[in-house]
Amino acid sequence: xxxxxxxxxxxxxxxxxxxxxxxxxxxxxxxxxxxxxxxxxxxxxxxxxxxxxxxxxxxxxxxxxxxxxxxxxxxxxxxxxxxxxxxxxxxxxxxxxxxxxxxxxxxxxxxxxxxxxxxxxxxxxxxxxxxxxxxxxxxxxxxxxxxxxxxxxxxxxxxxxxxxxxxxxxxxxxxxxxxxxxxxxxxxxxxxxxxxxxxxxxxxxxxxxxxxxxxxxxxxxxxxxxxxxxxxxxxxxxxxxxxxxxxxxxxxxxxxxxxxxxxxxxxxxxxxxxxxxxxxxxxxxxxxxxxx
Amino acid sequence: xxxxxxxxxxxxxxxxxxxxxxxxxxxxxxxxxxxxxxxxxxxxxxxxxxxxxxxxxxxxxxxxxxxxxxxxxxxxxxxxxxxxxxxxxxxxxxxxxxxxxxxxxxxxxxxxxxxxxxxxxxxxxxxxxxxxxxxxxxxxxxxxxxxxxxxxxxxxxxxxxxxxxxxxxxxxxxxxxxxxxxxxxxxxxxxxxxxxxxxxxxxxxxxxxxxxxxxxxxxxxxxxxxxxxxxxxxxxxxxxxxxxxxxxxxxxxxxxxxxxxxxxxxxxxxxxxxxxxxxxxxxxxxxxxxxxxxxxxxxxxxxxxxxxxxxxxxxxxxxxxxxxxxxxxxxxxxxxxxxxxxxxxxxxxxxxxxxxxxxxxxxxxxxxxxxxxxxxxxxxxxxxxxxxxxxxxxxxxxxxxxxxxxxxxxxxxxxxxxxxxxxxxxxxxxxxxxxxxxxxxxxxxxx
Lengths: 292, 447
Prior knowledge:
The structure holds two protein chains of two kinds. Chain A is mainly alpha-helical. Chain A has two domains: 133 residues, PGBD-like superfamily/PGBD (Muramoyl-pentapeptide Carboxypeptidase, domain 1, Orthogonal Bundle), CATH 1.10.101; 115 residues, Arc Repressor Mutant, subunit A (Orthogonal Bundle). In chain A, 48% of the residues lie in helices and 7% in strands. Chain A contains twelve helices and six strands. In chain A, the strands form two sheets. In chain A, strands 4-6-5 form a three-stranded antiparallel sheet, covered by helices on one side. In chain A, strands 1-2 form a two-stranded antiparallel sheet. The longest helix of chain A has 22 residues. The two termini of chain A are 50 Å apart. In chain B, helix 1 packs antiparallel against helix 2. Chain B folds into three domains: 197 residues, no CATH class; 143 residues, TATA-Binding Protein (2-Layer Sandwich), CATH 3.30.310; 61 residues, Nuclear Transport Factor 2, Chain: A (Roll). In chain B, 45% of the residues lie in helices and 23% in strands. At the A-B interface, helix 3, strand 3, helix 8, helix 9 and helix 10 of A face helix 1, helix 4, strand 2, strand 3 and strand 4 of B. Strand 3 of chain A pairs antiparallel with strand 13 of chain B, so a sheet runs across the interface.
């Protein structure tokens, strides 16, 4: 425990030190990493891409760090206007043109993202007019700012150096993060001790049931169907799921199904109903037998 | 003596009461959990239905042909009634939630009236389209608020039983997250005035058929072992567990698995021909050092090695440090939506972490594709005039009845939302309209 604390302290001290040394430099001018940015990507490069496209007026959506459809069309329009090959990919040539044509205020964008403010990055408009403080976090944000100034800008330096996290995530077709979380809860409750594929398998069964005409048509309907899952009946579903449960759910939503379209599964050691043994079995993964 | 008997009787009595009490307690808890589950189900169903409702109204706005519009409106009507039903199951009796319910029944009325009308003779008026637009906006707001409440509920393990208690005893009302959330939802709807009123994957249907296009010879167990080693790319030393599928499987297959250096591999491949159907490799993935674009190239090479050629990437997404890329088979530049393959790539070092090709091997064959009877320009005219078409191409999809049809595929924009529209290349009918999403705001920052 103590070791951890020391490490954390050291870490902060380091960041602080870097922060001080960085203040002497003028705003960094280097732009984009070497990657070709394509639809579906997330991260710093995408934030920069969106900011630059917005600076030129091509992108009107939120700068959230996820390359979605809005960014795709904006990029294509940019490529069209600047006489580049219209492929919706930000490759070397496109990035060069973009860097030449636009400005990117990295500190400004990163800070706004971290504070959770609603903001834009249009060229030719003063920055102050482009920030709308987040409704709930607004007060907190200003307080932090004041504090930061009071302490000689210590906080601000820290925020400058760590890159901002994207504000959005990719979600597989039509499913919300909440649906994913609910499924992860169910998978964790049902298959905590199973291997990874065993978890994907349980998630796949839930989805196969949603598709099946004999079961409810929603994820929540399937999960909360009375007597369908033991973890739901005994409340184990409310344990906090681990990352591997969530990853397994994402795999299942993206089309993985190690069960071969099963809609039932049971643990042969604890199964109490004879009926379940009469179902045509597909395979066994870990402790669970999967069947039609 | 009597004293001892008395003590014994009392002791038995106390133990019995204790046991009885414990049992009652257990039963009470079981019933509480069950009641809680019913509430949770209605609540999560409600958020999902509102989400779906919002999308459906969106697609309705993007549609053109009357034959598709009526069923769509009927679907909206059904969804409103489901959502209404969900609200009715929640213990909100003491909470003012009537505006939201009113909103739901307004959409219901509107969609019912328009769905049963002969839209051929009496199409939607401009005013009706306008009110549909405002319904779309309001339903979007409600959806967002509900999703936020849902996030809080899941994140903090909130119980509906507590809401019930809080509502019954007025004084704690102020600090109950769920109640607050629902009040915000209600406020959102207040902004909407009455004066305004006047899943499955892309291209595949849920219809199932057999694997009839698998080629190759049946593998015996030794050959299967060899094939597994080759597909996993493992040396002779690593132990592989092999199992045959049971009677319930749609296609006879082998399942192979291994465990080595913190990596778990699991794979299904068909007995006939040894075609890999699904592969999952699990290991810890470190910070991404490769881009999604590089990941896509790695995935493409991998498909080449599996002798799946003419695969074109059509969708890619990065989740944390892994990339998932969706490929479609193309024949003469025509996309075959039923023949899809997904590949998962670790973006830390470019390992293949997963592969699934059930759909591909279920549907794939060399097809005879007839010449389209319509030109692209003619097909374009069948698309709703409000949609700004950006891309067009030919593709084969499975329609609602599970038949493969040749279509013109259009990607278009309507008010910042992207839609994919499929127009039958023979008859010109609108086969499918989809609203494309794929990203969602993170709730941690939104709330």
